[in-house]
Amino acid sequence: MAELIHALGPLVHWTAIVFAVYSVLINASFALLTLLAVADLASYRRRLAFAGYDEWFLDPHARGVSVLMPAFNEAATILTSVQAMTSLRYPDFEVVVIDDGSTDDTSALLITEFDMQEVPLVAAGSIPTQGEIVSTWVSRRGARNLALVVKTNGGKADSLNAGINYSRKELVCMVDADSLLDPDALLNVARPFADDPGNVVAAGGVVRVANGSKVDRGRVVDVKMPRRWIARIQVVEYLRAFLVGRSGWSRAGGLLVISGAFGVFRKDVLFEVDGLATDCIGEDAELVVRLHRHLGEIDRKAGVVFVPEPVAWTEVPNSRAVLRMQRRRWHRGLAEILWRHKRMMFRPRYGVAGMVAMPWFVAFELLAPVVEVAGLVLMVFLLCSLAVETWLIPGWDVANPPLVIILLTASVLFAVLVTLISLLAEEVSFRRYRGVPDLLRAIGAAVEENLGYRQMNAVWRLQGIVEALRGTTRDWGTMERQGFSDLDHARRAEARLALGESTD
What we know:
The strands form two sheets. This protein has a ten-stranded mixed beta sheet, with helices on both faces. Strands 9-10 form a two-stranded antiparallel ribbon. It has 16 helices and twelve strands. The protein has one domain: Spore Coat Polysaccharide Biosynthesis Protein SpsA, Chain A. Helix 1 packs parallel to helix 14 (about 400-430). Strand 4 and strand 5 form a beta hairpin. It has about 500 residues and is an alpha/beta fold.
């Protein structure tokens, strides 16, 4: 046994060195991204004083926006979400809801609530779709900029492609059916297309967690930290991902991800790339990467930007089972996207996206759960080795366990620091969470995230990699909606009564 343990010494030693080097590199890259994000946020805040959003709202020549809302069994939140969308502050927009073969009463609720009439709308685009269009509807009163497209089930990407075909405006805003947009969200996220119309093809906004907040008539009126720990940790995750990750990559010119919950695209460019891919789980991110590839192949100087002010509020999973399925799906999608567009990597024609962003995502996003899980196993082994060295095999020194443990601890502390910086950026720039109790809960969540949740998430993401390697059947999964507030339940009950249904 002693000989076997001694034989493992060199392997453990070099594994520890690789892990230490990886930790230094990933922390250094996050530090650089954080600096870029801080610079981007500071620049954005300086421009706000001269943005002139009020004047632009009155501009009759503002570029029209079609807000697309794919919906599948979204009866729990659809009425509140659509009410919020139709009340947005923007001079020229429409809302197109695409019911992707729902088996609940999503369409019936909409038709009743908004007094919709079936009319034969004509598709202006020809992006191929898998689902068959069953009917099209428009609202007769109260929300004349609202349309409903009912189709057979084909998936979210297929629904969005149908929505693009039936949209009438030159910009397309893709949102989730459970999203709530701030009143000025469209004014903010569409501004880059007006400021630099020839060089911006897509823009993404911030997605925040609505769990625990007060919602009134489709508006988040009182932002609160969720009480449940699993939702509270997702709040700080989202803040870090958007205010540090997206801002930093946008500043560097290599933004690869625009959340499917809130993003705006030029419709003519969407037609050029044939819309969203229906055979990829991460269709939103895949579209952005494909846009970078398309622009590089036609040698066109244009970019994808992130705007930190416009906010879409969404309901996040409240259970570990649903969250596990979501994170596995996200990471499998990342693996498929990077493999599909692997030829972009280290190719100068694709700019920062190909030369820097994609290799970084492979090394520090795709492979991160592999390293994290291996690091956990290594830490347990080294802790055990201390006991072995002390009591069983004196003189055995495999890899300086105290040093490796210090590096692992430093990595965790740095992760907490990046999250705290994102919280500071939120507090200084936007201050959505008011009050000391919520701030303390957010700080606590930044620490709490690294005490079990981060490790659990790494295992889930690793499972996503395994699924991608095995090529198992894709499962888009389902999200159990609780509804944003008691008003959701009341409005559904009223609509169902009008339909002659039970409200149970």
